Amino acid sequence: PKVIDLASRIEKAQDPEIRQMQGWLTTWGAGMGHGSMPGMMSGADTQKLGQAKGAEFDKMWLGMMIEHHQGAVEMAKTELTKGSNADAKALARKIIDAQQAEITEMQGLLSQS
């Protein structure tokens, strides 16, 4: 239940952030690169996760999400140092704060399992 609750909260927090960033890309006439981004799961990772069940799934999901969040934090820090749009920088700060807190929570859940 704790992992499911966390996943639900992450989804609710990230959906509007994703829509905001997609809107900026459309407005700016920019596309989203499809190269490898820090913390992105590979197809093999997704397949392994899909085959896992119960506590094994929870542990695997938490580990992958920690790595994914760490990648997002790094990208957000890059926006702060290299970006010029004030709104994008504000979102980057919000992402850093939220995802670092979620990383701490996920690490705590992993240590309990």
Topology:
Layout lengths: L1 H27 L14 H9 L2 H29 L3 H27 L1
Organism: Amycolatopsis vancoresmycina DSM 44592
Protein name: DUF305 domain-containing protein
InterPro entries: DUF305_CopM-like (IPR005183), Ferritin-like (IPR012347)
Name a few traits of the molecule:
DUF305_CopM-like; 4 helices; 113 residues; mainly alpha; Ferritin
Strand % is under 5%
Query: What is the number of E strands?
Result: 0
- Structure class: mainly alpha
CATH 2nd-level architecture: Up-down Bundle
Helical percentage: over 70%
Total domain modules: 1
CATH topology: Ferritin
- What's the Cα radius of gyration? 15 Å
End-to-end distance:
13 Å
What's the tally of helices? Answer: 4
Compressed to H and E, one letter per element, the order equals: HHHH
Sheet having the most strands: none
The H-level CATH homologous superfamily, spelled out, is: Ferritin, core subunit, four-helix bundle
Any idea what the shape is?
Answer: globular
> In CATH, what is the class?
Mainly Alpha
Average predicted local confidence, pLDDT:
93
- Unreliable segments (pLDDT under 50, ≥5 consecutive)? none
